[in-house]
Amino acid sequence: MSIIIASAAIRGAHKLAEQAEQILAKAIEEKGKECAVEYPNTAYYLPIIHSMTGRECQTLADLEDVMAQEIKPLLPPPVNEDIWIPYLGPALDAGMAALFAEEIIEACKYLIGPNPINDLWLGAADDVILRERGIQFVDGSAPGFAAIVGAAPDVKTAVEIALKCQERSLYVFMSGHTNGTTLSQQLVEGGVQLGWDTRLVPFGPDISAAIYALGFASRAALSFGGVQPGDFTRNLLYNKSRVFAFVMALGEVTDEWYATAAGAINYGFPVIADSDIPEILPTGVCTYEHVVSNIPHDQIVEKCIEVRGLKIKISEVPIPVAYSPAFEGERIKKDDMHVEFGGQKTTAFEWLIMKNTNEVEDGKIEVIGPDVETVKDGERLPLGIVIEIAGRKMQSDFEPVLERQIHTFLNEAQGIWHMGQRNIIWVRISKDAAKAGFTLQHFGSILHAMLHEHYSSIVDKVQVKIYTNEKDVVKLQEQALKAYELRDARLADMTDESVDTFYSCTLCQSFAPNHVCVITPERSGLCGAYSWLDGRAAYEITPSGPNQPISKGNPVDEKLGQWEKVNEFIKSNSQGAIAQMSAYSMIADPMTSCGCFECISALLPSTNGIMIVNREYPEMTPCGMKFSTLAGTVGGGNQVPGFVGHSKHYITSKKFISAEDGIKRIVWMPSALKEDVKDTLIERANELGLDGQAFFDMIADEKVATSEEEVVEYITKKNHPAATLEPMF
Amino acid sequence: MYPKKRSSEKAAQEMIDLMAEAGQENAWDRLDQQSPQCGFGKQGVCCRICTMGPCRISKKAPLGVCGADADTIVARNFLRAVACGVSAHSDHGRAVAEVFIAGAKGEAPDYGVKDPEKLHRIAKEFGVETKDKSDKEIALAVGEIALAEFGKSHGNQLMVKRAPKPRKQIWEKTGVTPRAIDREVVEAMHRSTMGVDQDYKSLLLHATRTALADGWGGAMLASDLQDIMFGSPTPGIGNINLGVLQKDQVNVIVHGHEPILSEMIVAASQDPELIKKAEEVGAKGINIAGICCTANELLSRHGVSIAGNFLCQELAIATGAVDMMAVDVQCVMQGLQKIAACYHTKLFTTADKAKIPGVEHIPIQEDCALKTAKELIVKAIDNFKNRGEVHIPDDKQAAVTGFTNESIKYMLGGKFRASYRPLNDNIMNGKIRGIAAIVGCSNPKVPMDYTHVELAKELIKNNVLVLTTGCASIACGKQALLNPKEALKLAGPGLREVCETVGIPPVLACGSCVDNSRLLVAASEIVAEGGLGEDLSELPLAGACLESISEKALAIGQYFVASGVMVVFAKELFPYLGSDNVTDYLLKDIEQEFGGHWALESDPAKAAQLMLAHIESKRDALGINEETERKLYTMEERRSLEL
């Protein structure tokens, strides 16, 4: 009977509102009404309240307003169980009120404790994580998330549930406890690695921490969906249709849980419980059932997926350990390691080459040299992975594109850790994996299976040779190094002028419908993930996919980087919103951004130059906005003259805002970003006739300047060339 | 003198018995006196339009003096009845618009804007600029546009825009998109006078156009403006049946249709001074109860109890407990005067359009409405001491009413997810087979409430969600069909499951008879929500009025048919069957033009079967009766989902 659920949810919302009122009063008593309140490093304030009401809560007084003007009017009277008026709508409202109250509770905890970030608890995800991880919900690499509340009956069950979610690439967002036990603690006890990297995220031990999961969903709609704050209908429908999340309730369901679950149902996220609670089976607010209960633990993950309406393909890789993107971020500590390769300690490389079809026997995997079982725990071996590919549509230009996937493919196996590429790789196999029977042969199995799965339209045959004898590895590495050099030389020669076709990327149009990326040899996609070659390969793989060739046509303005056909393409593919686009200018018709950019360049008017900030940098920048705020301005498919989103790689391209004199304009970067691009930036400056190292030093960073005035002061002192250039606009 | 034959419901039976014992006359007695009724009239083949007549068509005399045949005469009678029904609702609408404007101008201080959100919504719909304007300024602009709808010289009814696109195209193609309401009524009278339109199809097509001017015009405006002025109804609880009269309180009954009167009476009854005055005469308070549609309006806005539907008006007075009854327009029996005279009950007419000889007339005027209402209550209080013997039946039922297009969407998703999606989904998955509208009157020719209630029971048993208005809604209320706890026991498993999820009874009371236009708006939004076709005629939806009396019911039926809905009336209460051609057109051929048609069936069980078959045929046509597997979404498929 739904009336029981509605009654409980409404009661729970009242209780949570009361709790929120109390903690808020306490916070005000301790800190005063004007005390600033925020979740760390986010441009979205208290994100559920912000996305649903448009409110920008910044002080405790603002929270009082939310309490009085939003939460209280939403709280329905208790359900009369003799004769009732419709309770579904009111219960959903109560759910939303509960989420608002819980956001207040968690926000106050940041001020007066207990701090949401303590022990294993992570508290709110900041915008850096949002941008890194949120995009996975949009591009499909994470099919959704499981918001799990409570705890499993025992550690073994907890581990099994978590593993099943990981195998299905789902994120697990954990909150709440059952009689003081939490799922997160159970997983730690079971030896499972928690954290964003393994997709097992311990938000907090109280039910109120569930808002971090729902707030994440709200922010995904705001940042990737172009949904405006306050446009609650679109935000919630975006989540219903795009972010396939669900709530798994483990253990006794309290009134507060019901209230929070009612809040989640507003998002179209159904609730699946292991306990015997009433069910709500008719569909409508969620895609399918709303509440399903009494599900045995060994079926609960599958049931959740079915109820949410998710189709998840589990990669079938014939290896003795689990395989899923969720294991990509797993770390293997030295003590847990059975064997390692490379990492500057042994010679190691990986190399993918195209061969004629008669030279490749598909599925042939050879291990030449000692294998895993022959070494003792903690030992090292050299490693050479040589992958030979044949395919009618394969081109040698695709070699690096495919080779770069080795990292992801190997990393996604549980118990395997891989870093770097080419001859700077570092690979570890864990004791557990070795114990499970994992051998080097399985590297071959993974690479064979995954190359076929992802590149079937260009790859017909794959054979893998794995060398672990020092002699073989050293010898083959020499050949590989030559191949890398040749590739680099070819890439270096590749300029925008040397090709007549660019590639589009509209992968992100599902959330930024007017945005079109144009990828040229000298300007990679703004997310940093797609080079021109990637675009070309992607087009070969999926001819009707989001990467389409754009023949340039006649130039409109070569300095700005505008071409007739490119403009036509942009216009028709931005639904007419963008008429023209400059590839090389951030002032005249700059390229739009979806929201996935690695960096943002922004004009600093009084410096006659620009600043660049990368998304990992959480602090205030000289333009007066943090990255997250800037991202809100620049993203969403709009042209904003003076601002442009781009990849890190583009900074040192010859075409980096070349219409505005390129890198000579850079006056400020965070020191970490500066360090990241140091070598190539110096090289590029030298090419421009500057003293590279001297120019590098002229660029301010947060250590010397945090405001525009300080940047002016610094660059004036250093004689930065920006001052001598034409005004930018 | 067979109370069970006269009413299917106990309280009424009790009062009918009591009146018989006292030798008092009521509608049933007068029906007996009138029987047998005129056979020509029952067929609609009698013509009194000109003084060459009256003519009546028979085998022996198949043509009237002017040469009009049965087709023409029946069609003219049909058209005139529709026009009359339209004028009733629409004149109600006009009265509302006038008070609305007066309120906005400050000339009717007791009327204001109680639902500003809806005002802004309608303003947007009307293209009224709202920026930097006060609610009163906006209301004035909205009111003027609304009032112009009745008599504007050019253009079509504005509200027609709310219909689905294919529906509007059908109306355009057949030339029935309604123009000014007055114009359609005037043209109806003109066409149907002697020697003008003598093609039955042409006459009936104009009946369609005239009816549409009501459903998508006058009546729709009435509901919307009333919502703005008096607040939009929201689901609430009230009691229904004669048992709501209070032995120890001053009982005031408001009867009729326009909330312009009853809203003021309710407001006046809450005046502490009047309550004190009532206590001074020994009463424990002032009890307001409604009869007929005004009752529906009050219950859905204020939780005010309902004493009964149309046929209860005389019975209520016969309890001896009614200290005052104030009536306005429509469905007010002249017989009230006679029965009131048997008791202490003070009866007042309040609308200048509707007077009764021997009944004191106290007009409610917009500039001093509340003051007049208070005077009326004072008369009731003063009359309390004059009560004689009182007999109030015990019966009353708790009911949940107040369902509108807006409140249904809210209850299905709350503030944040309000929409018809859950309803559409559950119709598509078959838990709910379809929707039925049970509307209309209360006719002494059938046992009171019997057919409405039996029909509703049969439909909900078969998993059809019932929406009800007018006296039918009160009938359902009296027999607990508006009480979720009781009524859900009678619902089929699928419907029950959905109703339990939402917390609603399986029969939703959607207001008064003028509120039938709400159902059209709701149906249009259900279409717009998606998954159930592109036009109203594709919906698994049927309507019924098995106890019709008023010409208003015919107008409603015709605008539903013209909107694509099958409408069932009782054969005996449909006096237009004297022409085979007209019958064929209304029952069959009209469907090809408009997708809806009339159907005739007096037996509620058989009517239910007709409606169920219709609903299933629509489901088949939509393809939603086919079993489908649960769709699981890949990322690509999710991306293609509309937001």
Report on the architecture of this protein:
The complex is a heterodimer of chains A (729) and B (643). Chain A has 729 residues and is of the alpha/beta class. Chain A folds into three domains: 307 residues, Rossmann fold, CATH 3.40.50.2030; 151 residues, Bifunctional carbon monoxide dehydrogenase/acetyl-coa synthase(codh/acs), Chain M, domain 3, CATH 3.30.1650.10; 224 residues, Bifunctional carbon monoxide dehydrogenase/acetyl-coa synthase(codh/acs), Chain M, domain 5 (3-Layer(aba) Sandwich). Chain A is 38% helix and 14% strand. Chain A is built from 23 helices and 23 strands. In chain A, the strands form six sheets. Chain A has a six-stranded parallel β-sheet, sandwiched between helices. Chain A is globular, with a radius of gyration of 27 Å. Chain A starts with a helix and ends in an 11-residue tail after the last helix. The mean pLDDT of chain A is 92. Chain B is of the alpha/beta class. Chain B has four domains: 54 residues, no CATH class; 161 residues, Substrate Binding Domain Of Dnak, Chain:A, Domain 2; 143 residues, Rossmann fold; 223 residues, Rossmann fold. Helices cover 51% and strands 10% of the residues of chain B. In chain B, the strands form four sheets. In chain B, strands 6-5-4-7-8-9 form a six-stranded parallel β-sheet, with helices on both faces. The longest helix of chain B has 36 residues. Chain B is globular. Chain B starts with a helix and ends with a helix. Chains A and B meet through helix 1, helix 4 and helix 9 of A and helix 17, helix 18, helix 22 and helix 27 of B.
